[in-house]
Structures are given as structure tokens and as C-alpha cells.
Amino acid sequence: MTRRADLTSARLPRGFADRGQTELAATRAMTDKIRETYELWGFEALETPFFEYTDALGKFLPDQDRPNAGVFSLKDDDDQWMSLRYDLTAPLARHVAENFQKLAKPYRSYRFGPVFRNEKPGPGRFRQFLQFDADIVGAASVSADAEMCMMMADTLDALGLRGKYVIKVNNRKILDGVMEAIGLGGEENAGRRLTVLRAIDKLDRLGAEGVRALLGQGRKDDSGDFTKGAGLTPDSIDTVLSFLLVQSGALTPLQDVTNMAPAQRSEGDVMTFKTPEGSPSYFVESNQGIVDSLRVLFADNPTSREGIDELAQIAALAEASGYKRDRVRLDPSVVRGLEYYTGPVFEAELTFTVHDDEGRPIQFGSVGGGGRYDGLVGRFMAEDVPATGFSIGVSRLQAALRALKGEEEKATGPVVVLVLDRDHIGASMAQAAKLRAGGIAAEVYLGSSGMKAQMKYADRRKSPCVVIQGSDEREKGEVTLKDLVEGAKAAAAITERAEWTESRPAQVTVPEHRLVEEVKAILARRD
RNA sequence: GCCGCCAUAGCUCAGUUGGUUAGAGCGCUAGAUUGUGGAUCUAGAGGUCCCUGGUUCGAGCCCAGGUGGUGGUACCA
């Protein structure tokens, strides 16, 4: 024995988790359904390694001071930086560029696996987690984007979430145009545009007034921390907010907005556009209505107009295929992937609320998203390669499903063959072998404890049934089978010890040659 | 990264103004029960009171730093 002081502490690195039988089974059930859906849509499998050269991953170039900021990186023995992948899109771009000649384009592929992020873990947030992506590379048309949205909807339907999610769709070009219109165009304003996008991304959490503060001077949060704002003028803020609020119903009716020129507004006026109590808000209730109002508000700018047209096409294609607004919904407040998306962006949001152990509501929110990234493959090749795709956060979605459906029943364990007489363990092993030959999961008890402990063991293994053969049975060429599930039910009613020991509920003694079929009969009661 | 809160048995938690061998419930192991999961009763095992240093005659308790967790915030491909 190692001296106590010298023991190594058995501990998992922060932000990583072991996953047991129950969780793995749930993951498998989920990923089977996702894979099935993707394949129905004609996507083929691809696997790439966990490691890539750091420069291939894109954003995080090797930085001498902080090579591990955000990603896990290490130097190969030839001094090249390698990193653990932080998503599945960058490796796909690399694969496509590297094998461009061989692939049939448009290339429809999917991939599944763990990705790694070196950042602060939180509840439900790990440094290793699972993603399941699908992408179409080499199709520039918005019909590809529309397909991605519809397939995402199909996938969530297949997982039993129909009516409990919505795929929100937006187009980055509209916002780009809006920002051009308020004087944030051009390379020199890239930083401020990013600040605006970040502010917009917080609409859910902070509400319109929080976003207004972040678009203006800045905002002080509850912990006293100050976040510097984008420094927009009140007019510009109104313009941006009016864009975001198109979908929320806050801007109805349409005429009220269009009757007031932007120059007439003063700070705070956006909120005064709210619908008066009970007045109609017909146009936000449909995707077409959102397109219409976007056209009225923002079509002056050519970039915005292009984005609106694309958005309209996606909505029309989805609609024509039977995906109504309850599944695929236009929503100008979705930004996502601040840096690299170039056109349509989408986000799968769960719309239900569950409560945690302490009864507090949890909003799961986004469980996946994606969009068009026409620039990503182009980093590796002279020619531009259009691409669109999305990613499902499997770990997060699984947590949501668990919260929704409750803990999955632990899968049934094997039949346990008890060993009452260690000298005859060979007979026990032969019985287990027969069961396996009959297609029944079975194991021989290999510990050193007595019968009572063996029963307890079988119970914990969630064994459906135990095989008992002591000297009594052996002499008669018999085995006793105990149905543990029925037995537990019978036991619940018993309070007297004597009754407990004598009734021996839910067990039968049968000739040994009938072992397999009798066990099958017990198992059949489960199904 | 920044701000706050927390850390005692496998789990959930008590622990007095700083005072001798640190407790409970649940769980675990075993026995009562000659061959049966549950219930009941009995016994047992299980602790670096997160770590390091400081104050004190004396620290689970007070102080400082660290680590871990947690809540908010920032970042998020």
C-alpha cells in the first residue's frame, strides 16, 4: 500500500466529465436519429482528427505569449503548433480544400464528435463537448441555406421536439447594410461593427433597453462591471433597434413606423412605437410580414436589400415545402458567429422552460446554429468556395432532452448466475454460456460474497433475473429462476420477515435443460 | 478575465463568545436470517474540518494568500 500522504488524488481536470452507461445510451439514441435524418437528406459521413495545425483552424494563430488562449495547443516535435479542434467546421474546410478535386460538388457531408475549448467551464458547459454538423460545400444558392434550415427542423422533429423549438433565420447582409447606412461601413469600423453585433446578441438577456445602453455609451451590470458601448448616436441606435424589434411585435402597426421619418425621432422613441393595447399586429405574425416590413424600413441600402431578398427566398422555399413559421421563423435579432458568417444565419432555439432541482426556471435557448460561410474554404485556396452548414450541440441538446423527459430508465443489465458453491463454479459458467448462446446477456457472479450480497449485486446491476443452483437443485437436475422485477413488486406488500422468507415471490424451479427458454419467458414479460 | 458568495464523512448538512476524544440523517459493510433484493433491529467501517502560512496558551471557527466550486458579468470560432 502506498502511504496515505503519497497517494495520488483521483480527480478529473476541470471542465471535463466521465460519462456512464445511462448517458452514453442516451447519446447513442440521439445520434442515431440525427444521423438517420442527415442520411435521408443525402449527406455522407466524414471523420477528421481531433488535432489540426493551428493555422488551419483559423482564428487562433500561434501566439508565443498565450498559445492556449481559447484553444488547447501544443508544439509538435518539428516545432509546428497543433491545436485540438474547437469546432467541426474549420476541419471540414481544411478537408475540402485538401481534397477538392476528388469531391463531388456540391459536397454534402456530416460529422460528429468531441470538440475542445479552453475556457471557463460552467454548469452545463464543458471544455470538451459533442457536436453533430452537416454542411453543403460548393452551393452558392440560398436553396442550400433553406435546406439546412429544413433539415435542422426535421432533425429536432425526429428527436421528438416537434412544437418545442423554432429555427430562427436572419441574414447578415441586412445588418451589414444597416450599419453602412449609419456610417459604420468600411474596414476602419470593423471593431465598432463587432461591438454592435455583440450588443445585438444580448437582446434576449438584457432586453431592448440593455441593448440600447450597449449601443450607446455602455452599460453597468449588477456586479458593478462596466461594459463599454459602441458609441452610436441616438438616431443610429433607433435604426438598429427598429431592425431588431421587427419580429417582436413591438413595432406594430407598420404604418406608425413608416409615417415617422428617422430624423423625427428622438432618443427613446423606438419604444413609443409599441402597439397600443389590443391593436392589431397582423404583419409580424407571418414570415412574409417580416419581409414586408424589412423592405419598407431598410430596402434603401443595396446590401440590405440583397439580404432581405435572400431571406424572402428562404422563407418561401421553406413555406413551399411545408415548413411554416412554427418551425422556420424569420428573426432579425439573430446574429451568431460574429466573425465569419457572410449571409444567412440560423439558430435552433428550444422554446420550453423546465425547472432545476431547486425549482428555478432554466431556459435552454440555443441548441444549434449555423449559416453561410463563403470565406472559410477560400482561406486555403485561390478560388472562393461557397459553403453553408449548421452544428447541433449534442451535449446541450441531450441535457435539454433529459430535463424534458426525466432521467432515462437505466438499461436492463445482464442475467446474473449466482455462485452458491464455489466448487461448482464451472456449472455456473456453463449455464451463463448457454444463456449467451441463446442471445441473452448473462454473467457469472465473480465476487466472494454470500448469497444475500449476490442478490443485492444483481439488483444493482438492474438484472432482470437471477439463476440459482444450490445443492438442492443440482441433485435434482434443476435450476431456480427468480424474476427480480416481479419479485420487487411482490416484496413491496410484505412487512413480516417470516412471510418474506417463506413466500419466495416470483421464482420458479425448472429442469436445467429448460434454462434458456424459461429465462426467455421471464424476459418476455419486460417487453 | 473582472466582481460576489461558498468549502466539515460517499451524499445532504449541524457544530455555541476560539476550549479536551468533530456529530446527525441518508448511503455503505456485516450480523440477527441454517439458501433470497425489501422492511425492522444491532454492530462496524468511513474525516488532513480544501491547501499553505499567520494570530493565539489553544483554530473546524479569526486573518492573508492559494486551490476548487458556485452566481453574475465579459469573451465565445
TrEMBL record:
Gene of this entry: hisS
Subunit structure: Homodimer.
Listed GO MF terms: ATP binding; histidine-tRNA ligase activity
Biological process according to GO: histidyl-tRNA aminoacylation
Annotated catalysed reactions: tRNA(His) + L-histidine + ATP = L-histidyl-tRNA(His) + AMP + diphosphate + H(+)
Listed name of the protein: Histidine--tRNA ligase
SUPFAM superfamilies, A to Z: Class II aaRS ABD-related (SSF52954), Class II aaRS and biotin synthetases (SSF55681)
Listed EC numbers: 6.1.1.21
Residue intervals of the Aminoacyl-transfer RNA synthetases class-II family profile domain: 28-414
Residue ranges the record marks as coiled coil: none
Matching InterPro entries: aa-tRNA-synth_II, aa-tRNA-synth_II/BPL/LPL, Anticodon-bd, Anticodon-bd_dom_sf, His-tRNA-ligase, HisRS-like_core, HisRS/HisZ, HisRS_anticodon
Stretches that traverse the bilayer: none
Binding site for L-histidine: 87-89, 117, 131, 135, 336, 340-341
